[in-house]
């Protein structure tokens, strides 16, 4: 086990080509999917939290259901849709990074929406009461509401990035964990462990944790700086 | 200024049923009554924060309504920036901050102010603009004696100078006595009695009003 650790550190220090490729694919997939989910989920979550309309309860129930969707179910759906006999086969997306991003977006967006909705529904009544009392426009109210959500957006981003980088079920099904193409850290760890190549698996695990630590530290520092 | 009669029902129970009111510009009307008497509900409906039953209160065309709720919201920005949300006149904002002893807190984050400071900030924010009808729901409840007096002077000055109709909801009969011109007594969701403060405080006609005032030692 000790030699596996030593080998893992050696792979990291020497910049192993396969390791670098896995890192690149992981970064591309996690960053892109978490940012897209944020761009869709934040405005939708704010709108859901701030507005009252008929059918809102149903949308919330559906969103909460999607928040708990097992990644393998999501992967299966995308696999059926994009496989050779699926209705979307012409897209030729199966076993590409793009479909992995798409699957991740479907998994993460409900989490972003749910978190934003819960937060906004807590502060929106007081804000709306205040802005109405001052005679401010709806657009101004919405901008002020969005400004009040900045820290929550940071928190939600951390959550969605963590989900994206650590997810394995959906990406392995739709991406196929193809070496040098769609293999990301989580699928590679599974693959190398199954093959008995513990050193590369440990190296990837260490990097995965380090990246997560760095991203969370950076966002927390930025959040603290903005709160001053 | 006329405010039409309206009512509010929750789950089949009428919590507010108020007749038409005629209010005069430049006057301060204090709404008094015990908890649950419908004072705040009346204010919220007038400010269009809450809907009334059927048709909402009808105000004369073009009437602007300013409102400070019981719980003031301080946005995550400086105290001065919060006040400037009410209007863009920076010199006016500075004068209001000076009067309300907020000048030393101008650059401080408003969401970190104390309860009393937040109430003063909210008062300054509202007074940046002219409204035809101003509704203040317990604006000095979180303030100390000194800043309560400062705020009362400012409220009185604002009403008299701007010529607005000012509705002041308060639990303090002393405050009503100090700055109101007329008093409206709410009881169980109804306007029980109204009139000039001297008459209503010292010679009420309804037994419910008398009982309420006796409880407060008047």
TrEMBL record, chain A:
Keywords from the UniProt entry: Membrane, Transmembrane, Transmembrane helix, Transport
Domain ABC transmembrane type-1: from-to ranges: 23-219
Keyword Transmembrane included in the entry's annotation: yes
A matching Pfam family: BPD_transp_1
One Gene Ontology term from the biological process aspect of the record: transmembrane transport
Family to which this protein belongs: Belongs to the binding-protein-dependent transport system permease family.
Protein name: ABC transmembrane type-1 domain-containing protein
Species assigned in the record: Blautia pseudococcoides
From TrEMBL, chain B:
Domain ABC transporter span(s) in chain numbering: 1-213
UniProt keywords, alphabetically: ATP-binding, Nucleotide-binding, Transport
Keyword Manganese: no
An MF annotation (GO) of this entry: ATP hydrolysis activity
Keyword Cell division: no
A Pfam family annotated for this UniProt entry: ABC_tran
Similarity-based family: Belongs to the ABC transporter superfamily.
Record-given protein name: ABC transporter domain-containing protein
Organism: Blautia pseudococcoides
Native organism taxonomy: Bacteria, Bacillati, Bacillota, Clostridia, Lachnospirales
């Amino acid at each position: 086990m000790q030699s596996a650790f030593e080998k893992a550190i050696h792979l990291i220090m020497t910049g192993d080509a396969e390791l670098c490729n896995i890192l690149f694919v992981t970064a591309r997939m996690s960053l892109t999917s978490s940012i897209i989910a944020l761009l869709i989920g934040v405005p939708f979550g704010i709108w859901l939290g701030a507005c009252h309309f008929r059918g809102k309860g149903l949308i919330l129930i559906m969103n909460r259901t999607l928040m708990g969707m097992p990644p393998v179910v999501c992967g299966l759906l995308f696999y059926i849709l994009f496989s050779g006999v699926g209705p979307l086969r012409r897209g030729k997306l199966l076993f590409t990074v793009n479909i992995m991003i798409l699957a991740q977006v479907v998994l993460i967006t409900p989490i972003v929406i749910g978190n934003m909705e819960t937060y906004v529904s807590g502060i929106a009544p007081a804000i709306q009461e205040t802005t109405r009392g001052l005679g401010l426009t709806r657009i101004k109210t919405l901008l002020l509401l969005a400004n009040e959500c900045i820290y929550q957006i940071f928190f939600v981003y951390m959550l969605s990035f963590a989900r994206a980088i650590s997810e394995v079920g959906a990406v392995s099904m739709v991406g196929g964990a193809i070496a040098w193409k769609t293999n990301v850290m989580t699928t590679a760890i599974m693959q190398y462990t199954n093959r008995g190549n513990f050193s590369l698996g440990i190296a990837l695990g260490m990097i995965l944790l380090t990246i997560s630590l760095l991203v969370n530290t950076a966002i927390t520092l930025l959040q603290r700086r903005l709160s001053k | 200024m006329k405010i039409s009669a309206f009512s509010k029902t929750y789950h089949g129970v009428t919590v507010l049923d108020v007749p038409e009111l005629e209010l005069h510009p430049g006057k301060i009307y204090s709404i008094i009554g015990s908890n649950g008497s419908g004072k705040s509900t009346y204010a919220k409906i007038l400010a269009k924060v809450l809907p009334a039953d059927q048709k909402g209160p009808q105000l004369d065309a073009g009437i602007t309504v300013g409102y400070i709720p019981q719980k003031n919201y301080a946005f995550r920005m400086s105290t001065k920036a919060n006040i400037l949300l009410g209007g863009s006149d920076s010199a006016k904002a500075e004068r209001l901050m000076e009067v309300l002893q907020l000048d030393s807190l101008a650059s401080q984050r408003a969401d970190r102010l104390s309860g009393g400071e937040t109430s003063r900030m909210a008062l300054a924010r509202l007074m940046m603009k002219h409204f035809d009808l101003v509704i203040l729901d317990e604006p000095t409840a979180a303030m100390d004696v000194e800043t309560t007096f400062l705020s009362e002077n400012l409220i009185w000055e604002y009403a008299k100078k701007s010529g607005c109709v000012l509705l002041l909801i308060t639990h303090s009969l002393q405050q009503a006595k100090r700055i109101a011109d007329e008093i409206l007594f709410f009881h169980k969701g109804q306007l029980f009695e109204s009139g000039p403060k001297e008459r209503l405080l010292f010679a009420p006609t309804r037994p419910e009003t008398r009982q309420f005032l006796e409880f407060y030692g008047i």
